[in-house]
Amino acid sequence: MGGSAFYDNFLTNTGCIGISYIPVIPGTKQAAGADTLYLGGVYMTLEMFLQHLSNGISLGSLYALIAIGYTMVYGILRLINFAHGDIFMMAVYFAFFGVVTFGMQWYVSFIVAIALTGVLGITVETLAYRPIREAPRISILISSIGASYLLENLAIVMFGGRPKTFPQIAMFTDMVQLGNVHIQLLTFMIPVVTVVLLIALMYLINKTKSGMAMRAVSKDIETARIMGIDVNRTISFTFGIGSLLAAVGGIMWGLKFPSILPLMGVMPGIKCFIAAVIGGIGSIQGAVVGGFILGIGEILLVAFLPELSGYRDAFAFILLIMILLFKPTGIMGEKISEKV
Amino acid sequence: MKKNTIFTLSAIVLLVIFLFIANTTLDSYILRILNLCAIYTVLGLSMNLINGFTGLFSLGHAGFMAVGAYTTALMTMSVSTKQMNFFLAPLISPLDQIVWPFLPSLILAGILSAIAAFLIGAPVLRLKGDYLAIATLGFSEIIRVIFTNTQSLTNGALGLKGIPTTTNLWWSFGIAVFTIFIMVSLINSSYGRAFKAIREDEIAAESMGISLFRHKVLSFAIGAFFAGVGGGLLGNLIGAVDPLMFRFFLTYNILLIIVLGGMGSITGTIISAFVITIAQEVLRFLDEPMFPNIPALPGLRMVVFSILLMVVVLFFRNGLMGTREFSWDKLFGRFSKKPLAKGGTK
User: Lesser CB count within 10 Å: N end or C end of chain A?
Assistant: First the structure.
C-alpha cells in the first residue's frame, strides 16, 4: 500500500534534512579534518555532531508531543489508544488540504486543522471507546485497533494512497547559519513550541479545575464520579487535549518531513507509545523524557553507525523490550501493584 | 461416542469428494479463493490458540508467518531460480544448493517459527495485556526489518519471486483438517484446560499449580508453529514473498477473523475464516467504479472490513460463536440432562 516510499523517504530525510550536507565520506579521518571526534567507529567534526544532535532534539520533541497523548489516555483509561497515530496523520492531511485545496493562509489552516483534530479525537472516544468502557480490556484494545484500521482505510479512500507533498512555508524552512552549521529554522522552533505547550499543559493539569478533574479520574473513576465530577466529559477533554498536541506535532512533522501518506501515522504512533513506556506510562514528564531519548538515540545511532541505518526502526522496539524486561514501570513511572 | 467418530469420518470423506470435484470443475480463481479460505483457517486457529484460548493478546502473527513463508520458499525453490533471484548478493552457502520437497519444508518452517516464538516468548510472556500486545507487535516488526536488511539470506526488499506454486486444495485443506484435529485434541486435553484457566484468571490458575510460564510458552510456540506452516502455504500459493507482505495489516486481518468468529471457539474461527475470505473477494466490486460519473474509490472494501471489525467489537462482543463449539450431539438436538463428559465450556 505504498508504505515503502514513505519509509525510504523517512530514512533519508531524517538523516539529512535541515543540514546543508557536507559531502564527507563518514569514517575517514582525512575527510573529517583535523578537529575531529572519534565515536563508534566514525570520524566526525564537532559541527556534524551538533547538526545531528539538533536534528535529534527536534525529532525527540515531536515524539514527546505525540507521546503525551498516549500517556494521558493511558493514565485515565489504562488503554493503548492505537488510533492516536492515525489522529496525528489526519491532522497533517487537514493542514495540507487547508493550505493547498482551500487556499487558506497557513496560520488559519493550521488553527483549523488543530481544532478539527481535537474534534476527531473526541469523536473517536465517543464512538469507539465510550460504549464499551465497562467491557474487558481486551475488547477495548481490539476496538482501538479497529478505530486505527478504520481511520487508515478512510484516509486511503479519501486522500488517495499516493504520497503528497506538504506545503513548504519559508518562515519555517529557511536555513540559518551558526558558525559552520547550517540548520533549518524549524529545527529550533520545534523544541521551543514543545516547551511552551508543555508549560501550558502542566499549568492546565496542576492549576485548573479541569486538570484537577483529570487527575481525580485517573486515580479512581468511581470515586471521582461520587465526588460530582462529570467523568465522560473529563475523558473527552483528555482525548481532546491529547489530539490537539498530536495535531501540533503532526503539522510540524509535515513541515519537517514533507512527504505525507495515509499510513504515515503507524510508525511514529508506535514509536511514541514506546517513548511513553520508556518514560513511564501515565507520567507526562516521563513521556517527554522518553520522546527525547528515542529521538536523539535514533538519530545518533544512524549518525555513528551508518551501517545499521536499515535497522533504525528496530531500535525503538529493542529499547522497549529492554525497558519492559528490566524496569517495566519506565524511568518515571509509579509502581503498580497487582490486586488479587 | 462411536457414532460421532463415524459422522466425523463421513464428513471428511464428503470433503474429499468435494475437493476432488472442485479440483476438476472449478476455475483457477475460485480454487485460489478456496485455498485462501483453508490457509486462513490454519492462521486463524493458530492465533486463536494464543489469543482466544490462552488469553495472551499477541499481535506478532505476521512475523511468524514471515519466518514460515521465507523458510518454505528458500527450501523449495530450484537452484536456478535462486541464482536468478539473488543477483545483488549471492545466497549464503549451504542454502543455495539445497532443494527440499514441500512437506519437510513446511515442517521446518513451522519448527523455525516455533523456535522464534520460544526465543521471543521466554522473555516477553511475563508481560500482561497491552504491554504484551505492543512487545509482540514490535518483535514482528523487528523480524520484518531484519528480513529487509539481510540481502544474502532473504534477498532484502526485493523479496523472492518464482517460488514453486505447490500449494493446491489437497495441501491446504489437508493441513487445515490436520490443524483442526490437533487444536481440538489440544483444547480438550489437560493442557487445553490449563490454557483456559490461564485465560480466565492467571493468579487463580497459578495457585492451582499450573505453571504459567510453561503453558504460556507452549501455547505461544504451538500457535507460532501453525502460523509458520500457514505462512509457508501462503507463500507457495502466491509464488512470491516480500517483507512488505508481512506488515500489521496481515495480523489485523487474522485478528478480524478470530474476533468475528469468537475468541475461544474453533468452530467460529473456521466459519469466519471462510466468511471473511470469500467476502473479501465478493466485495471487490466496491473498489471498482460503481456509477458512470463517479470515479472509483480504491480501498472502500477495506473500509467496510474495518467498520465490520468495529461493529463486531462494539455490539457483538462474543462474535459468531462466543466460546461455543460445534458438536454432532448438538446438531442432532440430543441434549442429555447429564453434564457433558469432557468438561470445558461446551
Answer: C
Contacts 24+ apart (CB under 8 A), A39-47: A39/A304, A40/A304, A40/A305, A41/A304, A41/A305, A42/A303, A42/A304, A42/A305, A42/A306, A44/A303, A44/A304, A47/A179, A47/A180, A47/A181
* A154 in contact with chain B, both atoms CB, cutoff 8 A: yes
Could you tell me what percent of chain B has a pLDDT over 70? 93
User: Which residues does residue A176 pair with via DSSP β-bridges, in sequence order?
Assistant: A183
Q: Which of helix, strand or coil describes residue A43?
A: strand
A142 has a chain B CB within 8 A of its CB: yes
Kindly report the number of other CB atoms within 10 A of residue B189's CB atom.
11
**C-alpha grid cell, residue A292:** 527525547
For A3-326, CATH number?
1.10.3470
Task: Specify whether the CB–CB gap between B125 and B132 falls below 8 A.
Answer: yes
Helix (H, G, I), strand (E, B) or coil at B75: helix
The two counts, helices (H) then strands (E), for chain B are 15, 2
Cβ pair B249:A320 closer than 8 A? no
User: Is the Cβ–Cβ distance between A81 and A73 less than 8 Å?
Assistant: yes
Distances (CA, A) of B260 to A134, A142, B83, B268: 20, 11, 43, 8
Could you give the CA distance from residue A214 to residue A219 in angstroms, rounded to a whole number?
Answer: 9
d(CA A300, CA A51) in angstroms, rounded, equals 10
> Would an 8 Å CB–CB cutoff place A132 in contact with chain B?
yes
Angle between helices B169-187 and B212-238 (to 10 degrees): 170
Contact B307 A150 (CB under 8 A): yes
- Helix (H, G, I), strand (E, B), or coil: what is residue B27? coil
Tens of pLDDT, residue by residue over A47-67, are 788 888 888 999 999 999 999
Confidence (pTM): 0.84
3 state DSSP class of B33: helix
Burial of A207 (0-12, 13-18, 19+ CB in 10 A): exposed
Convert the pLDDT of each residue in A88-112 to its tens digit: 999 999 999 998 888 888 888 999 9
Q: What element of type H or E holds B188?
A: none
Angle at B149 between CA B102 and CA B142, to 5 degrees: 85
| pLDDT tens digits along B250-276 | 998 899 899 888 888 899 999 999 999
Cβ pair A143:B299 closer than 8 A: no
ipTM: 0.83
| Cβ count near B297 (within 10 Å) | 17
Residue for cell digits 492515525? A86
To the nearest whole Å, the CA of B290 is away from the closest chain A CA by: 15
Question: Which residues, 6 or more positions from A298, have their beta carbon under 8 angstroms from its beta carbon?
Answer: A14, A56, A59, A312, A315, A316
Among partner residues A131, A141, A153, which is closest to B133 by beta-carbon distance?
A: A141
pLDDT single digits (tens) B137-191: 888 888 998 898 888 888 888 888 888 888 888 899 999 999 999 999 999 999 9
Q: How far A140 CA sits from the closest chain B CA (Å)?
A: 8
Residue-level pLDDT at B154: 86
Which own/partner pairs from B200-204 qualify as long-range (CB within 8 Å, at least 24 positions apart)? B200/B55, B202/B128, B203/A338, B203/A340
| Cβ separation B134–A80 shorter than 8 A | yes
Preferred mutation among B306, B315, B316, B323 to probe A, highest tally of A CBs within 10 A: B306
B258 close to B269: Cβ distance less than 8 angstroms:
yes
Residue A39: strand pairing partners: A42
Provide DSSP, A188-249.
HHHHHHHHHHHHHHHHHHHHSHHHHHHHHHHH-HHHHHHTT--HHHHHHHHHHHHHHHHHHH
Q: B61 is written with which cell numbers?
A: 502473527
For A307, what's the count of Cα atoms within 13 Å in the CB-facing half-sphere? 5
